[in-house]
Amino acid sequence: AGTDETTLAFQAVAALQCGNYTWTTCAARWTSMRPDQAFDPTDPPLYLMHGDADTVIPVVTATSISYWANNKGVERALVIVAGLGHTEAVATGDPTRWAALVAWLQTKTA
What we know:
Elements: H1 5-18, H2 23-31, H3 35-38, E1 46-51, H4 59-71, E2 76-81, H5 89-92, H6 95-109
Parallel strand pairs: 1-2
C-alpha cells in the first residue's frame, strides 16, 4: 500500500520543522520558540490549524503564534479544531475543513 499525498505533505512539513530531531527535541524547540521575535511584516501569510486536545504541542502555542504574527503585521488565519489532538486529521478529517484550507492557500498563492 502506498502513502497518500496528504500524509507525504505532513511528513514533509514535520521534516522541515524538526529535521532529524527526535520528537522530544522537536517539542523542546517549539516550547522555546519566541513568537514575539519570530515575525516581520514582510513574512508571507500564515495558516494555523490546531486541535484543542493536542497533548504534544499545546493549543496556546498556536494562539500565541497567531497573536504575534498579527501583532507584527503578518496576515494569518487561525483554526482551532475541537476535540482533536496531534494528528493530521485536524486538517484532513473533515472535507469542509480541508476545502477551506485549500481555498485559503489558493487565494494567497494565486
